[in-house]
Design goal:
Structural class: alpha+beta
Number of strands: 14
Oligomer: single chain
Number of helices: 32
Shape: elongated
Radius of gyration: 60 Å
Length: about 900
């Protein structure tokens, strides 16, 4: 169904374009006017086709009347020539007449081989197109339009009869046209007769008798002819009044009194019947018009009422009709009379049909826009009509006239009226037009000096903030509101400025609020309670809006110091005071919370990133190992010392023999622990002094020559780690008996190169061996400058025999026998006392027992587990 309608519309348009292309190309009208679609037909036999169009140079809207000569192809040559001459004469006569109720010709008749054409004011339809039952509902006439149209025809005929001295002779529905503004206009002067005064000076209009030999369309329509023309061959202005009566009957009934065609004899019989006052039924005619209509149809011309008498009947006393009639004569009034009429017009407009308001009243109103003093009286009526219009009607008929008014600031009432109707303008005006025309209007309203206009503008701004782009908001709207708020002396204006800003906050970004809005609040010097509460409202919105959010730094440095003095203003009520205090507390709470969270995060980061020294690393790892051993001990599981990465630095009790399964489990745990340790320290070490020192020590340690060990059982007896003690006199307590394995032998040089300290900070390659006191004959074997040993703080000259612990914890080479195979004593005397050895057993250094081979394997395992890279990673 829809496709059928579209195809039909396309076919109609295509046909119209094709017809025009065949008819108008040779006509001069097309040089100046662009011809569009056909809208109606008019004239004798509705032979004139009327098209919409516009003037190419000025874009002025027009209607183009086109008569196609091919319509006369079936006529005889005489009738065709006669008809063409009648049409030419009618247009020429129309061009000469200028009256508000006579159709205005804008371009004279142009003739080509195929057509006649001329341009007029925009036309809506002919009266024949809008009466009858077949007319569309949107074209049917309202009663107020008919009454007002008849009055307009009265005025037109009165001008023709009394001023132009012309008798129309063919007043009918086809020769009455309705223009775009719904004004009725006279047209079709094809058969008009001008006055030819008699010898006595009386007006005389010669009468042409109807001829049956001529084509029916080449003569006036018999349906509208007065009876005296057929009976007495008399033609006068009263003859047009009879035609007017038939037209009124046709408008209400849809057809003339009787149809005759070209049957002149029938018309004569009907004229005789009218002399007997035989009228058809007039049930469709309004009761207050029937008597006047019968008078117009009186067979005697002298009995017909005059036009000015018809205007006074009750039928035309309707308020709407009077209003439209006043508008027709408005150009004759002065400004005072006009202002009184426009003030009362808003009470009448709602009672009239919308089409009447839009097409009959609005055109007269917009004409007054050229008269600046009248704009404040006209503009409310225009906006009232706009309020009853659709957006399309508003854009097509009203907006184009309002655009120049948007730019005016004088009289000042124009801005006030626009501000009062701003919601209507925003609803109907397209977004692009708002940016181009309405926004500048608001800017000018903010800068005017009338507080009422300023308040209305401030109230309207937030309603269409989404149509204002960011740059306009930042550079035009916000600065104007801030300036108005600071410089205005009106408290109400200040409060409305702040309220407007509060409503606009949602359309602003965070940084614009922090940089422009919040600093602006501190510049407001007024301390009236209303202003203070408006400021508090802005702060609340800025805090609670997730898009905005005031940072803790801004609250701490700017907001809270500004708000604190506000809470002690004298004019505040208790509720206002509580509101301010609650806001300050909320800000303090947020600052406290956010700052605490920040500090906790910083503390955690610092704690995680803080570098640890060697002692701290070793302590931590030792605690972990101790905890691990403690847990295994509680579980009655004996753990081999190989599980401890520090086993090379300590001495544990001899372990019990473990089963093969237990040993495998322990070795698996040991390997897992070492893997975890290595994985946690894979980061490349930072080159520093401590790392270089450790690297040097480990390098010397790994390069030292280790003695070959003899195979031993799997179990090893490991003594507690005890550093050597020396007497204050420098004597070395040595117990060499039973310390050397019978299967082991070493040279003193080999031992001297294998000493290293338990302290990782000691430079081992510069550490002197305890055996050097023997070879050098020294009494203090730990006093070398490069050993970093802590010398006895109280001096070395005392003869006290108390034992002091050496500052360097030596890690003795495996298989060390205490003195390289010989005892060492003060003054070179050997001390070999078995009892003394037994008593000093707990003070012995790390001495190998019978299981030296296992001890060597254990040391190698420990050093492999504690690789160079692991130590360096711990230290960094």
């Amino acid at each position: 169904m829809a496709m059928d309608v579209i195809n039909k519309l396309y076919s109609t348009v295509h046909t119209t374009v094709s017809q025009l292309s065949g008819v108008l190309p040779g006509n001069n009208v097309t040089r100046e006017y662009e011809v569009l679609d056909q809208v109606c037909t008019a004239g004798v036999g509705l032979m004139w086709k009327v098209y919409n169009g516009y003037k190419k140079s000025t874009k002025q809207e027009v209607s183009v009347f086109v008569f196609e000569k091919k319509m006369l192809e079936r006529w005889t040559k005489d009738d065709r020539d006669t008809m063409l001459e009648i049409l030419r004469r009618g247009v020429q006569q129309l061009t000469k007449i200028r009256h508000p109720h006579v159709l205005t010709v804008q371009h004279p008749l142009e003739e080509s081989r195929d057509s006649l054409a001329f341009a007029t004011e925009p036309v809506f339809a002919s009266l024949a197109n809008v009466i009858g039952e077949a007319v569309r509902s949107d074209k049917k006439l309202y009663d107020v339009e008919i009454r007002h149209g008849l009055l307009q025809l009265f005025d037109g005929l009165n001008f023709l009869h009394n001023d132009a001295k012309i008798v129309h002779r063919n007043i009918c529905a086809e020769t009455t046209v309705i223009n775009k503004n719904r004004s009725w206009k006279l047209f079709g002067f094809d058969f008009c007769i001008s006055n030819q005064p008699a010898v006595d000076g009386k007006a005389f209009w010669p009468c042409r008798e109807y001829s049956t030999s001529m084509h029916v369309l080449a003569q006036p329509s018999l349906e509208y002819c007065a009876p005296e023309i057929a009976l007495n061959t008399i033609n006068s202005t009263e003859s047009d009044l009879f035609s007017l009566g038939v037209l009124i009957f046709t408008i209400y009934s849809g057809k003339p009194l009787k149809m005759f065609g070209n049957d002149y004899s029938s018309f004569r019989r009907y004229a005789a019947d009218l002399n007997q006052r035989k009228y058809p039924s007039m049930n469709s005619v309004p009761s207050d018009l029937i008597d006047s209509l019968k008078a117009l149809l009186h067979p005697s011309p002298h009995m017909r009422p005059q036009l000015h008498e018809l205007k006074q009947i009750a039928y035309f006393q309707d308020v709407g009709v009077k209003t439209l009639s006043y508008l027709d004569s408005l150009y004759q009034w002065d400004n005072l009379q006009k202002s009184k009429f426009y003030k009362g017009l808003p009470q009448i407009i709602p009672t009239l049909p919308h089409r009447v308001n839009l097409h009959s009243i609005l055109p007269y109103l917009v004409k007054e826009f050229i008269n600046s003093p009248m704009i404040p009286f006209v503009l409310p009526n225009v906006l009232l009509i706009a309020e009853m219009s659709s957006q399309k009607e508003y854009c097509d008929h009203i907006l184009q006239h309002l655009k120049p008014i948007f730019k005016l600031t004088d009289p000042i009432q124009i801005l006030l009226i626009f501000m009062q109707k701003m919601d209507l303008l925003l609803k109907l005006t397209p977004a692009e037009e708002i940016k181009l025309h309405v926004l500048p209007l608001l800017y000018r309203s903010l800068e005017c000096d009338m507080p009422q206009i300023q308040e209305l503008c401030l109230a309207a701004l937030p309603t269409f903030s989404n149509l204002i782009d960011y740059n306009a908001m930042k550079n035009a709207v916000i600065p104007r509101i801030k300036k108005l708020c600071i410089h205005s002396t009106n408290v109400s204006v200040k409060v409305n400025c702040l309220i407007s800003i509060g409503k606009l906050l949602e359309d602003l970004d965070k940084w614009l609020v922090l940089d422009e809005i919040l600093p602006f609040l501190t510049l407001i010097q007024s301390r009236e309670p209303a202003i203070i509460m408006a400021i508090i409202g802005i702060y609340k919105i800025a805090m609670t809006n997730t898009k905005l959010g005031i940072t803790k730094d801004v609250m701490a440095h700017k907001c809270i110091p500004f708000l604190m003095p506000l809470c002690v203003e004298n004019g505040l009520t208790i509720s206002q005071f509580n509101t301010i205090v609650a806001l300050i507390k909320e800000m303090l709470s947020r600052v406290e919370k956010e700052q605490r969270e920040k500090l906790e995060q910083l503390s955690t980061i610092q704690r995680e990133n803080k570098p640890r020294d060697a002692s701290e690393i070793l302590t931590t790892e030792l605690e972990k190992c101790t905890s691990y051993l403690s847990q295994n001990k509680q579980a009655n599981v004996s753990v081999n010392s190989d599980d401890d990465m520090f086993s090379g630095f300590s001495v544990s009790q001899p372990s019990k023999h473990l089963s093969a399964t237990t040993q495998a489990n322990q070795q698996q745990k040991y390997k897992a622990n070492n893997d975890v340790l290595k994985m946690s320290h894979t980061a490349s070490p930072k080159p520093d002094i401590l790392s270089s020192l450790m690297n040097s020590n480990l390098s010397h340690l790994s390069n030292s020559t280790a003695p070959h060990a003899i195979s031993a059982p799997n179990t090893a007896v490991i003594l507690p780690l005890v550093n050597p003690y020396t007497s204050r006199g420098g004597s070395v307590i040595n117990n060499s008996s039973n310390l050397t394995s019978p299967n082991e032998s070493r040279s003193n040089d080999s031992w001297n190169n294998s000493w290293h300290s338990a302290n990782p900070l000691v430079m081992n390659h510069q550490l002197s061996s305890p055996l050097l006191n023997k070879s050098n004959g020294s009494t203090n074997n730990n006093n070398d400058f490069s050993s970093l040993d802590n010398l006895y703080p109280f001096g070395g000259g005392s003869k006290n025999t108390s034992v002091q612990r050496s500052a360097v914890d030596y890690i003795y080479p495996p298989g060390y026998n205490g003195a390289g195979g010989s005892g060492i004593s003060k003054n070179g005397n050997s001390v070999n006392n078995k009892g003394s050895m037994n008593n000093m057993k707990s003070l012995m250094p790390l001495l190998p027992q019978q299981n030296a081979t296992h001890q060597q394997v254990q040391d190698d395992t420990n050093f492999n587990a504690l690789s160079h890279q692991d130590i360096l990673s711990f230290l960094n």
